[in-house]
Amino acid sequence: MTARHDPNCIFCKIVAGQIPSRKVYEDDDLLAFHDIAPWAPQHVLVIPKEHIESLYDTTPEQHQALLGRMLALAPVLMKQLGVTGGFRVLVNNGPDGRQEVPHLHLHAMGGPRPWAKG
Ligand code: 5GP
Ligand code: ZN
Fold it and tell me: Is 9's C-beta closer than 6 angstroms to any atom of ligand 1?
């Protein structure tokens, strides 16, 4: 079973306020903050406060609502940040999915091109 908080996890430390972040949204279950190394003019990460490693650790029965809320938050935040011309969402999972931080996060990236090549 996954612990709700992993003391060695960088995003759990952000949730706990032990590492600073530029927050854009917070509620009981979710936190969103600016990525420290943005790939786009606006790049935010939406994470569950609970330590869930990746989508592999979710089930439709248990996590449908949480995952739906993470995705639904993306356009709200992008609009708040002035992104009106389009944005991308991405969730990397596991080593072959190029996930570097093993705490589930949804990237929302937008702003004027040409950052979004390919
Ligand atoms: P991944 O490759 O796991 O999908 O993406 C992890 C993301 O987390 C990267 O875009 C990286 O820049 C971001 N990141 C890593 N450490 C920190 C941090 O301490 N603070 C913030 N705000 N973002 C981080
Ligand atoms: Zn964590």
Answer: no
Does 10-110 carry CATH code 2.60.40.150?
no
**Exposure of 83 in the CB half-sphere (CA atoms within 13 A):** 20
Encode pLDDT of 46-90 as tens digits: 999 999 999 999 999 999 999 999 999 999 999 999 999 999 999
Binning the chain into helix, strand and coil, the percentages to the nearest 5 are 30, 20, 50
User: From ligand 2's centre to the CA of 84, what distance in Å?
Assistant: 31
Q: Report domain extents, the chain.
A: 10-110
Kindly indicate whether the ipTM for this predicted assembly is greater than 0.95, answering yes or no: yes
CA nearest to 66, candidates 47, 94, 89, 79 = 47
